[in-house]
Amino acid sequence: MSNLLRIWAPRLTLLLCLAAPHSTMAAAPLPDHWREAGAQVYTVAVPYIDVHTFAGRGYPIFHVVEHGEKILVIKRRNDWFNIETLDGKAGWVAREHMNGTVDANNIALDFSTPSWRERAENRFEAGLTAGSLEGAVAYTPYIAYHFTPNIHGELKYTQAFGEFSNLKLTTVSLTHQPFPSWRISPFFRLGSGVIQTNPSTILVQSEDREDPIFTVGGGLVFSASNHLVLRVEYNNHIIMTTRNVNEEVEEWKAGFGVLF
Amino acid sequence: MESWIRRIVLVALVSGVTLSGHTLAQGSDQGKLLGDVVQPDIERRKVKEALIDSENFEFGFYAGVMAFEDFGSNDVYGLRLAFHVTEDWFVEANYGFSKLQETSYEQLSGAAPILTDDQRDMSYYNLNLGYNLLPGEVYIGNRAFNSNFYLMFGAGNTLFADEDYFTYNFGGGLRLFLTDWIAMHWDVRNHLMTHARFGKEKEIQNLETHVGLTLFF
Question: Which residues of B touch A110 (CB under 8 A)?
Fold first, then answer.
């Protein structure tokens, strides 16, 4: 009898161990926050996916989620997804590994990198262009909002650092992009604003001036990704001076914009 | 007698193996065939990433010391906003301000001050491009913190003595993640500008170091 026990006891425990995870997983209900409306719960459909300690390819892999196990996606940073497993492990999974998951209906998911064409989903743009304004170094931080793929409104603040004076331009403009589906796409701009001229106090003693301006411009925009555009542009500003003649100022710029 | 039994057993075994082998082969063929027929070619469902909360922005403040050439080393305070475009690249906007001291000349000569009190309010802003050069972990005691050593460069404006000056800046820093959305920073920057406040044009370098706290959202 004791002999029989010695032989069968380990086998029985092994059997129990093998059976246990399946039975508990099938029986245990999902935690509450996994069942909330909009909770992104996916099932791993490839042999395994790697879980890193943090959002970056260099951070170590400390866990793998196996085939058939469920994960909850909590948040995202760039191309990394913060996930949680049923046994409470939390970590970061790379975008390409997320492709190995299926949804509740067993349909494979597509987590592929959004192409530049999907930039229309990111309606805000903030960026910086630098170049020359009548020969002086000038740079322009700007923000823009894309009302439609064709039309967006811009708020720009330009500072130019001349030898004898500094210029500050604040303009509101409307930009039209006739062919938004082209990767390198032309645009045209109409705008209006104010220009402030501050003569250098060290060299010249003269008053600061503020005049309205009108802007006509255009350029090319290159969509590097759905989050990044590169711009080259030309603007012609007409300064409505209080004198008899209006002045014209030319501006050449290159820069980048981040879409979000 | 024994060899006869052995022969029967052998024959049974061999025939059993070949038979089962045959059926196995047939089974897998069938599986493949069925697989070709049954496996539906369903398109992958594009995930709506907008539904997943993204944390690509970083906002925070900092405090430190900025040495403004000729005008002493002064406290500097600032705000920082960053957007992480990829895991490697980010863009960043900073605004900082400081109060300048008297120059050594003003202190020693006893002459009239070069700048008025208002003119000693210095502020700057800049827009930078940053690169996360050394992502990794640092260990403090028996705890591990995720970290990033980054480099950055950019340009902006310095408002000094009521005048605006075009200013380049470059530097590096360490971002230490306390949690995955709270980070501590330690930065070193160099601001390069040219001014003619003392008559002749002078290229100056203003070194700044600060510590800060940022939140990802």
Answer: 44-47
Closest C-alpha among A171, A220, A130, A125 to residue B154: A130
Query: DSSP assignment of chain B, as one string?
Result: -HHHHHHHHHHHHHHHHHHHHHHHHHHHHHHHHHHHHHS--PPPEEP-GGGSEE--EEEEEEEEEEE-TTS-EEEEEEEEEEEESSSSEEEEEEEEEEE----HHHHHH----SS-TGGGEEEEEEEEEEEEEEEEEEEETTEEEEEEEEEEEEEEEEEETTEEEEEEEEEEEEEEESSSSEEEEEEEEEEEEEE-TTSS-EEEEEEEEEEEEEEE-
Single pTM value for the model: 0.77
**A123 near B CB under 8 A:** no
With beta carbons under 8 A apart, name residues in chain B contacting A227: 85
Does the beta carbon of A27 lie under 8 angstroms from any beta carbon of chain B? no
Tell me the average confidence (pLDDT) per consecutive run of 10 residues in chain B, 217 residues long: 68 60 51 54 76 89 95 94 91 94 87 87 92 91 92 92 89 94 95 89 94 95
Nearest to B49 among A53, A76, A260 (CB): A76
Q: Which of A57, A202, A227 sits opposite B197 (nearest CB)?
A: A202
Mean pLDDT across chain A, nearest whole number? Answer: 85
Higher pLDDT, A195 or B21: A195
Check CB contact under 8 Å for A128 and B127: yes
| Of residues A38, A59, A114, nearest to B146 (C-beta) | A59
Which ipTM was obtained for this model?
0.76
pLDDT one-digit tens code per residue, A113-153 = 888 888 888 899 999 899 998 888 898 999 999 999 899 99
Residue B104: predicted pLDDT: 87
Other beta carbons within 10 Å of B93: 18
